[in-house]
Amino acid sequence: MDNDDIEQQEPFPVDRDGRQYQVQVDQVQVDGNRKPGCCERFQQSVSRWMLPEELRSKYLERANCCPPPIFIILISIAELAVFIYYAVWKPQKQWVTLDDGIWNSPLTYKPECRQEAWRFISYMFVHAGVQHILGNLLMQLLLGIPLELVHKGFEVGMVYLAGVLAGSLASSIFDPLSALVGASGGVYALMGGYLMNAVVNFREMIPLLGVFRILVIVLFVGIDFGFAFYRRFVSDEAGMKVSFVAHFGGILAGMTIGYVFFSDYNKKLLKDPRFWLCIVGFVVCVLFAVLFNIFLSPAP
């Protein structure tokens, strides 16, 4: 093959930042008899699940398991490890209820300790019980792994942590006397971004699959909100009341920031005006929440 032929070939695909992806030799060779491997079949399923039809071929050209979906796996392991620590080494009366071990944790968000700024993020590692942590882990793995294969760990991590922070700040404003535990803010951020992606690209998806995706999210949100309202307003369990407002903050963060990150993976974010609009809006909301907690909060 001469140099002219090489120059006429289509260039290797690049990511949002212009970096070339590493493409394996067997991916650029024409081999009609080669059957796709397990990883390739999984990536094809992910592309049908996550992307509109016109973007699937581009995704499959760039898709690989390097790096693997490491963020969502590591954060899930960390949350599970903290739960096991408080359930086994600091035993509770029951695994499904809160007790002193959790309330005394330096990770839990408590309104009287809000000057300890790390609690606005670290509360995501502490969970109220088995149902609480299993629900969060199940949803964030089911959503986070496919999202991270498409969008990689940095983007998924930023959306997840934005939901966690938005959840605690929203709770500190709208439910300022309640404590906060659990990763629901981050989970709801993933769901919010995923839901917006499913709604906006519904016509490009397989109709039955699109309906199924939306119904699953709506069903989970309804059930989880039901448990949250019950724990907050109905349950007679002793101890501090747990806020549910983080769910609202997380899903709003996901439907804005998450939608921008997840709607068009092949576009440079820094050149997308929606990205800057969401970033500016998020920063303004954070500054307002910080000033509210310093000067206006009724919490002690």
From TrEMBL:
The active site is at S184 (nucleophile), H247. One of its GO terms (biological process) is proteolysis. Residues 115-262 form the Peptidase S54 rhomboid domain. It comes from the Eukaryota. Its EC number is 3.4.21.105. The keyword Aminoacyl-tRNA synthetase does not apply. Its main location: membrane. It catalyses: Cleaves type-1 transmembrane domains using a catalytic dyad composed of serine and histidine that are contributed by different transmembrane domains. The chain crosses the membrane at residues 70-89, 120-145, 157-174, 180-199, 211-230, 242-262, 274-296. It is found in: Membrane. GO terms for cellular component: membrane. Keywords: Hydrolase, Membrane, Protease, Serine protease, Transmembrane, Transmembrane helix. Involved in regulated intramembrane proteolysis and the subsequent release of functional polypeptides from their membrane anchors. Known substrate: EFNB3. Belongs to the peptidase S54 family. This is Rhomboid-related protein 2.
